[in-house]
Amino acid sequence: MKTPILYIVVPCYNEEECISTTSSSLKKKIASLEKKGKISKDSKIVFIDDGSKDKTWSLITDLSGPFIGIKLSRNRGHQNALLAGLMYSKEHADICISIDADLQDDIDAIDKMVSAYNDGAEIVYGVRSSRKTDTWFKRTTAQSYYKLLNILGVDVVYNAADYRCMSRRAIDELSKYNEANLFLRGIIPTLGFKTSTVEYERHERIAGVSKYPLKKMLGLAWDGITSFSIKPIRLILDLGVLILFVSLAVVIYSIVQKIIGNTVSGWTFVICSIWLIGGLQLFAIGIIGEYIGKTYMETKNRPRYIIEKIHQSK
Question: How many structural domains is the chain composed of?
Answer without folding.
Answer: 1
